[in-house]
Specification:
The protein is mainly alpha-helical. The protein folds into 2 domains: 83 residues, DNA polymerase, domain 1; 178 residues, hpI Integrase, Chain A (Orthogonal Bundle). Helices cover 56% and strands 4% of the residues. It has a 3-stranded antiparallel β-sheet with strand order 1-2-3, with no helix packed on it. The longest helix is centred in the C-terminal third of the chain and has 22 residues. The protein is globular, with a radius of gyration of 23 Å.
């Protein structure tokens, strides 16, 4: 089946994450079901009219422009693959324009909020508290993704050189610098980690719970939400917000945009430039409030 071949292509050749692959499959199966309503049995037989009609139906049903764009991206990838393997003679998405999406700035925590969290919050006791503190420190001080955090192994931490090896999207490896404070935190954590009975093999997960088991994705999401709720009123309080916070604070303190791009593991500069809008908006507010003609 062509859809299964495409999914294998994404998984083993493009090395997309399982989450992305699953989303692409759902989108394509949804479109396949839509086509069946018109008597079209195969995805490769779709026309530009049926794709456009599907997009219009989705938007009429209240599906957001970003979600529609993602579905259109899945279709584009599928037809690119189908043409490459000789299963389709045309690409019905080639002349379609994606719906315009409103510009959404990344949400982040103000610096004073992060200072309050790291300097004033009373953490849980024992190994649990040490783990929670290290999770917050790693996400905020390195800007790594949640999947990258959970993928860290003992062998990825080089405390002598003060670096962490991170495996990013599409299996792209990068080396992140770690400051002295975080190195000290890692050393202390590793001493306490031994009491959990977790394996000390270099391939073992760095972060473990009190039973020595790898941290669960959901537990990290919950702990980040809990601690951020004490220092910010914004609705989004996820690990990715700490990634946004890292990038925004770096740029606010004068970091080079290309350097931040490398630290975040972005494939292109455009993905990093979105954070400059946050700093520009902050400067705009300062100007409006402080300048005699600023309008404040």
């Amino acid at each position: 089946m062509l859809l299964d071949r495409f999914v294998d292509h994404l998984t083993y050749e493009k090395r997309y994450s399982p989450h992305t692959v699953a989303a692409y499959r759902r989108d394509l199966e949804q479109f396949q079901h839509f086509l069946a309503g018109f008597g079209v049995e195969h995805l490769a037989l779709a026309t530009d009219k049926t794709v456009r009609r599907w997009m219009m139906q989705l938007m009429e049903e209240g599906v957001g422009a970003r979600s529609v764009n993602r579905k259109l991206s899945a279709l584009r990838g599928f037809f690119r693959f189908a043409r490459t393997v000789g299963e389709a003679g045309h690409d019905p998405t080639a002349l379609l324009d994606p719906p315009k999406t409103p510009k959404r700035l990344p949400e982040f925590v103000e610096e004073k909020g992060m200072n309050r969290l790291l300097d004033e919050v009373v953490w849980s006791s024992g190994h649990q508290g040490a783990t929670e503190r290290l999770v917050i420190d790693l996400l905020y001080q390195t800007g790594m993704r949640l999947a990258e955090l959970l993928g860290l192994t003992l062998g990825d931490a080089d405390l002598r050189s003060g670096t962490l090896r991170v495996m990013g999207k599409r299996q792209k490896e990068r080396i992140l610098p770690v400051g002295p404070g975080l190195v000290a935190g890692l050393k202390g954590y590793l001493q306490g980690r031994a009491s959990t009975g977790a394996s000390n093999d270099v391939s073992s997960p760095l972060l473990v719970d009190a039973q020595g088991e790898p941290l669960a994705r959901r537990s990290v999401q919950r702990l980040v939400n809990r601690y951020l709720s004490g220092v910010t009123t914004q609705q989004k309080r996820s690990p990715h917000v700490l990634r946004h916070t890292f990038a925004t604070h770096m740029l606010e303190h004068g970091a080079d945009l290309n350097a931040v791009k490398e630290l975040l593991g972005h494939a292109n500069l455009a993905a990093t430039q979105v954070y400059t809008h946050n700093t520009v908006e902050k400067l705009r507010k300062v100007h409006a409030q402080a300048h005699p003609k600023g309008g404040g």
